[in-house]
Amino acid sequence: MLTVDFDRLGLQAGDRVLDMGAGAGRHSFEMYRRGADVIAFDLDADELSGVKDLFVAMAEAGEVPAGAEADVKQGDALALPFADGEFDRIVAAEVLEHIHADVDAIRELVRVLRPGGTLAISVPRWLPEVINWKLSEDYHNAEGGHIRIYTDHELIDKVTKAGRFNDGTPGDAMVFEGKDYTHGLHAPYWWIKCAVGVENDEHPLAKAYHRLLVWEIMKQPTALKWAGKVLDPMIGKSMVLYFRKPEAA
Prior knowledge:
The protein has a domain at 6-125 and 143-183 and 235-244: Rossmann fold.
């Protein structure tokens, strides 16, 4: 289940790509399949172990183009262990809402992106997320859970100003290039979960809707594809913002 549109990101075979907050690796795997040189970066060593195993399995099964490379790296989003301008593309999907010092994390993303490179950031969309918070305190009070709800204007402002130095003088300002909304079918599932209990996976309504989502992901039926296209702009659970770092003068 992908959130980022890699064509819109401008991903090409041979690009060096950072998946910051890779989690279980869903975006890393697709970028690897497209021939990128991928670094899956996360704080969770156990998650990264599984990602690395699947990278190896994909290569052995011939699922990736010749020459593509992929590896994992554990570390802190506030101090990325990479050189300035090291990456052509960066993906940070559903991670900033978990980080207290989000501006510092954004500055690190801008730092390691090369001039001319592109960045995709996805976060929970404001309205669906507000409904979740209103329905359940457990939804966002869990350890490692969501600590803020972004508006598009707030996050765009934080990213486009991230290249400025601490004294306010201009640095490598980021250019906002557009946004998408995705996973419209998934927002009602989380509203149901929050209403019946986020840990209550056995509730009949939650189980039934979960089966629908599994059908959508595994079989991709035409009817649900069209339903998603209709619902995405209205109640899409995720907001995806795209940015470009200007070429050096």
